[in-house]
Structures are given as C-alpha cells and as structure tokens.
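seq:
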Amino acid sequence: MTDPSTASGVEARQLLPTATGRQTWAALRTELARLPVLSAVAGTLLVAASATGLVAPWVLGRLVDDVIAGTDTPQVVAWAGVIAGAAVLAGLLTAAGAAVAARLGETVLARLRERVLDRALHLPSATLERAGTGDLVARAGDDVAVVTNVIATSGPAFLGATLSVVLTALGLFALDWRLGIAGLAAAPAYALALRWYLKRSVPYYARERVATGERTQATAEALRGSATVRAYRMEDTHVARIAARSGVARDLSLEIFGLFTRFGLRINRSEFVGLAAVLLAGFLLVREDLSTVGAATTAALYFHRLFNPIGLLLFESDSVLQAGASLARLVGVTTLPDTASPVSRHPARPERPEPAALEVTVAQHRYDDGPVVLRDIALRLAPGERVALVGASGAGKSTLAGIIAGIVEPSQGSVRLRGVPLADLGEHQLRREIALISQEVHVFAGPLAEDLRLADPDATDAELTRALDLVGATGWLRTLPDGLATAVGEGGRQLTAAQSQHLALARLVLADPAVAVLDEATAEAGSAGARDLDRAAVAATEGRTTLVVAHRLSQAATADRIVVLDQGRVAEHGTHAELLAAGGGYSNLWRSWRTPGPVPPPARENTERIQDQSHPKVGAPGTFPDRPATTRLRG
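struct:
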C-alpha cells in the first residue's frame, strides 16, 4: 500500500521505543529470577573457576621462597604438581561455567525474543505503519543477532573476567596490603581510559543501531514496492537512498574503530603504570625486609594476571555496549502496551457482525511534516454498499484505504463504524470488524489448511473447502497432491499470484468481517485471471460494506458507487452511469479505455506496454482521470 508520493520521499519515522538502562536491567533481573537454579549453578562455577586461577601464582611465590631457603627436589616437584592440577581444574571449571552461563543467557534471550515477537504481532497497525517495518525487522533480526553473539562468545568470558579481577584484587590485598595499594596505582589510568572511550563511543553505538534500522527500512521499502519503483523509473533514487544510509552506518563503524584503536593505546599505558608500581613496591618492601621475594613475585604475577581480564573487560566493552544498545531496543518493544485481549489469545468463534455503515471525515492528512496528501474528504459507506475508489497514482487512494481500514490514523479527521470512532474499538475488535487485503499477499509456509485457519482457527475442513469454492479456487485445489494438507509457501508448493490472491480472499471469507477494504487486491493477476479474480472478490465481499481501490475500470463499473480522487480530493462521485452522463474525468477515462489508441513509438514500446489491453490499470504512469489516456498496445 504505497503511494508514489510516499515512495519517492523520505519521511521521518516514529521509531519504536528504546528502553532506559534501568528498564533493561529490571527486565534482565526478572528473567534471571525465573531461572534461579541455572543462575546459581552458573554463578558458582564461574566463581570457582576464577578462584582456582589464583592458586598458581600463589604457589609460584611459595616455590620461590622455598628455593631461596634451599628446599629439596621432592618439594619442588610437589609444588609443580599443585600448579598443574590447579591449571587443569581451572580449565574444567571455566569450560563448565561458560557452557552453563551461555545456556542461561540463551534461555533468557529466547524468552525475551518471544516477548518481543508477541508484542510485535499485537502492535496496533497504526503504530507499525508509523514506525515502519525496517525498525522492527532490525530489532528482531540484527539486534537479536548482536545479543546472541555476545551471549554465545564474549558474554561468559566477560563475566569470568569480572570475577577474576575482583578475586585477584582481593588476593593481592590479602598477600600484602601495601602491594595491593601499589596495584591500585593503575586504577586511575584505567578509569580515565575507559571514561574517555565511553564518553565518545556510547552515542555512536546508539546511532549505529538506528542507522542500521534506517538502512533496513530503505531496503525493505525498495523491495516491497519494486513494481512501483520500476514503473516510475526510480531505481537510481532508491539505490542512492540505500547507499546513503549504508554510508552512514559504515562511517559510524569506522569512527568507532578509530576510537577503539586509540583506546587500546591507553590500556597498554595503564598496564605499564600498574606493573611498574607493583614491582617498585615489592623491591622496596624486600629491601627493608618487610616482605619476601616470593610474596613480591606472587604480587607481580597477580597483577600480570589482571592484564588479560582487564583487557578483555575493556576491549569486550565494545561488544557489550553494542549488545546493551541492542538489548535496550528489544526491551523497548516489550514495554509497549499489551493490546492482545484474552479473546485474541484464545479465540472463540464470534457472532457474524452485521454489515455496518462507515463514515469517513478527513479535513487533511499528511505524513509527519510532509505535504498534504488528503483534504476535505467526507464519505459515508452505507451498510452492505460496495464503493470503488478511482484515481491516478499518487491521488491518495491507498492512503484513504489505510485510514478507512484503521491502519493509518488521519492527521485531522476521524473514521466511525456504526457511529463509534475506530480508536475506541480497540485493536482486536477493529481487526474483527474491518479486514484489509492488499496486492502484497503472503503465503505462510506449512499446510494450506493451517494457512487458511489463520483467519478462523476453529474452521473445519468442510468450511475451508467452502470458502475456497466461493472464491473459485477449487479448480487448483483439486490439483494439489494432498489437498488441504499440501505444504505451500517456502519449502512447499509455490502458488501463483492468482492462487495467492484466491487464498487471501478465502481468508477474508473465513474471517467474516463487517467491512472489507480491497487495496488493489487483484492487481497481480495479469490478464489471464483478472476476470476470475474480480468475480472472486465480488463473491467474497457479498453482503459486506466494501471499499475497492480499483486498478481496472471493470471493477469500478460493477460497484454500487464510484468515488474519483484527484490530488487528494474527491473530484466526483456517483454510479457508473451517472459519472458517464456527467462527462467529467471518469467519463473521459472510460472513453479512452474503451477506444484503442495508436501504437506507441518503437523507442518506448517495451517500457509502456501493459499486461492487459482490455483491463488497463487506472493510475498507471501517464494516465490521469481528468483527461483521456493513450491505450498502450503490445508491440
């Protein structure tokens, strides 16, 4: 549902919320509290692994003192055995702790991902329309991948490094408080380095995630509207837009890498300061007989042992910060209000809604700060009335259809169903009362019956067959090897464009709404199945209040009433006969459609041909409702 005006412009998106640091930590604590045993086991193993790592430096210090004291060889061998045993045990505990911690993290992420998906599937249509699918896809795809990578690789190591730093620092003070204080000389240098890095990098990571979402949005829009893009020769415009947004993301990544490199130099300087301070303090203490050579050796080894954990903490903070930014975006989705009602989670077959009157009033509508795309619209669809919406591309047909369906909230105006504003119905009731079918039909992977039951989970096989029969799909249904049990979609039987539209119309029959909005729902049929799909659409909407965005004048001619849009305004409305008699734009368009024009010049022959001479698309590039359009012929 894309108007060229919006397809060719870049409007500011109202992105989905991002959680604060407090909200993110609260969500993590809540999920960890749901897994107390696994959390306790992971914590115990990681602490034990870090504590075991302190054994080797301590034993080496004792060994130095024993050698100076002239100990015998068996004692040296015994100490060596202790060191080897401690190393093996530390390795086993580290591996076990990392595995359990990764399992804990993956479980927490899986539950969080389920909550994100649950909220995403129950997002109000207007909210998703404003945010754009790119932001949501980036969160459910890229952000989840970033968090998953950290949990599976650097996450457990990061936790282990944190514990190693804490326990080693305690061990250094336990060895000799003066040596511990000497080691703290490196703390200011580390802190300044980290402060320098965080101050500059954190904003970059937040901007990088947003840039990724914008790049995904630009790509999704171009692919989703590929037919419109090609029709209006906007390939270069969209490629340039994607390149620009990719360039923003690339430049941010390069700037972050530059910061990261300079951060590494500051870490090396901090390590030098700390180790030099410990060695100098040890030398002075040994010279004054306030400490032994073995203790000084142990202290130096302890501090040297901190190089890797501290370096890992600081360097992996790069990944952790990215994961934190991604996690905040995921948690932000879960903070959205839960619009799913108990009925929608456990659906029961409701009473069929009666055909309803629909009143639409739009003083004006614009997308964010863009130009006005609709103005002075006042329509009433009587119960059971079938209204066709006709106009050139960019006239605002799809926007008006989205407003009527409750997908788009008008900037100034309202839509009332049975006298009740759509905003007061609630998302579940709104979707129960009004159904929208566009030309973008998705066939879900799995058995055909399950695909149909998305509209009515309680429908029997007989009811599914009747719905398909009503829309004229039983012909190809009989050709399926397993009938309703045949797998369709990705990995299964690939349905044609016309069959996919049959499927969508059958879902409409099963959903049984009071109001149906068909936004070029049969546009992809081509000439072969155009009439069949038009008949199927009429059958599926029989008895319902229906708005049809007509892309063929044959659809408009059979409607109870026709509304012609021109530059966002209602230019004329009435029955087919009344509009022909009025001699206005619709009459001109009808006559130009019925009267073949000259064959276009060879140079433009290939780019201006259409699929169906007898069913030209209203609003195709170069056709307008207020003047005759040249009928394009096949070359």
